[in-house]
Specification:
mainly beta; 8-stranded antiparallel β-barrel; about 15% helix; about 60% strand; elongated; disordered N terminus
């Protein structure tokens, strides 16, 4: 995945040195943090609860309306002990132990911008992207009287798409942004869905 990120970044830098028949500015740098909520399937939703995300990106303006972005981010989800109880019909007295789940995501996404005529420094956008997710879930152990149930760790790599909406508040050399999305990973046997909310800065 690191190799893919390096290649994509080099491609963006190469594109930035050429003209598409118009002026294309130097790349912009993105940094963000935020929250991530699991959504589907049921086992994923019940076993893990809302966590944090962090990430970096590099972008190019292909036109006034379209921005191309390479994005790399990491999502950390904490164990939901009450959800595990419900999912595996465990007693409320059961001891539940386990570590977090994580998702590492790389994607290339396009922002389609819509400036506000009444507010020059505000831009709305919707985005769509495609990339790759790596999911890792740690062991979960349920201890109940003399019984022990172990749900083994799991790792999975899957192609993924993402779409959402966002807002930029423009300043002189930077802009603040917030975006809300849905990431859909084509895992086996179920589709994996999570909802990222990103808050960050774009350095122009």
């Amino acid at each position: 995945m690191k190799r893919v990120l390096i290649i994509a970044t080099m491609m963006l830098l190469l594109i930035s040195s050429h003209s598409f028949g118009q002026d294309i500015k130097l790349p912009h740098f993105y940094v963000h943090t935020g929250i991530t909520k699991p959504a589907s399937p049921k086992e994923f939703l019940k076993s893990w609860t809302m966590g944090a995300n962090v990430g970096l990106g590099l972008s190019l303006d292909l036109s006034e309306r379209i921005e191309l972005i390479t994005l790399f981010d990491y999502h950390h989800l904490t164990l939901n002990k009450r959800g595990v109880e419900d999912l595996y019909n465990a007693s409320s007295l059961a001891a539940i132990e386990g570590g977090p789940a994580s998702i590492t995501n790389f994607q290339v996404k396009a922002n389609f911008n819509f400036p506000h005529d009444s507010t020059a420094n505000m831009i709305s956008y919707f985005y769509t992207g495609a990339g790759y997710n790596h999911l890792h879930q740690q062991d979960i152990a349920i201890y109940e009287e003399e019984d022990e149930t172990l749900i083994g760790s799991r790792s999975s790599d899957m192609p993924a798409i993402e779409f959402g909406i966002g807002f930029h508040y423009m300043m002189e050399s930077t802009s603040l942004f917030v975006e809300f999305g849905a990431n859909i990973g084509f895992d086996e046997p179920d589709i994996l869905v999570f909802v990222p909310i990103r808050l960050g800065v774009k350095i122009n």
